[in-house]
Amino acid sequence: MIVDHPYKTVVLSLTLLGLTLIAIAGLDYLLRADTFPVRNVSFQGEFKHVSQRQLAEAVTDRASGNFFALDLTAVQRAAEKVPWVHRATVRRRWPDGLHIQFTEQQLAARWGDQAWVNSSGELVELPDQSGPAGLIQLDGPPGLHAEVLAQWRRLESIVAPHGLGIARLRLTPQHTWEIGLRNGLTLLAGRGQPEQRLTRFLEAYRQTLAGRLARVRQVDLRYTNGFAVEWNTRAGSPAATDNNEG
Fold first, then answer.
1. Residues 62, 38: contact at Cβ < 8 Å?
2. What angle do CA 188, 190, 192 make, to 5 degrees?
3. Beta partners for 104?
4. CA dihedral 112, 113, 117, 121 (to 10 degrees)
5. pLDDT score, position 207
6. Which of 117, 166, 199, 243 is the 20 to 30 Å CA partner of 110?
7. 184 and 207 together in one domain
8. Tens digits of per-residue pLDDT, 19-58?
9. pLDDT at res. 9
10. Taking a C-beta distance cutoff of 8 angstroms, is the pair 90, 76 a contact?
11. Which residues face 123 on adjacent strands?
12. Residues 6+ positions from 225 with CB-CB distance below 8 Å
């Protein structure tokens, strides 16, 4: 015969309650801002365009408080809002420190008049700051910066073996491509993928236009079997068009 002992149940319940209260009190103590405060914030990065002072000012509000309760994601976001910061990683450093490692933006191109595109194809804004000179000028409808950057890389690989380079690439609102070469030549490459049209033009470029660039206004590559050359206007006469087939 088994006899229940109610007092044992009561004692067990009180014990569990006591342990729970102790745990809550301990946790409350650990998470108090003045118990384990963050006293030191360190930074690691290139510091080419970003200063340690900029980073410190940006994360001050987020990086202060209890060591254990600190929101590392919030600190990361604050650091990545600093102009020129691309990525930031944040970790605690026992017993009272915070370490922030960051990478700076690697800009690949200018986008429009007020923004840039980094090497990852992401849009970058640098308020009141200027980026490096000499980068390609890209332009296009909003949101298509990554597509235009990828197209530039493909086209650049086509013209480079011919000793040429691309200075400008624009995707118009009608989704046609305009290519500006570094030698001043403008190419109208049409819709879709212009690689084949550009390759065909380059095969005839040196024999037909290389020595007459000063006279060329632009070249239209939107022909099935050739291209059309629009010459600069001279002596007030209208520009002539030279259609090259084959």
1. no
2. 140
3. 85
4. -20
5. 86
6. 199
7. yes
8. 554 545 454 444 454 578 899 999 999 999 999 999 999 9
9. 67
10. yes
11. 117
12. 245, 246
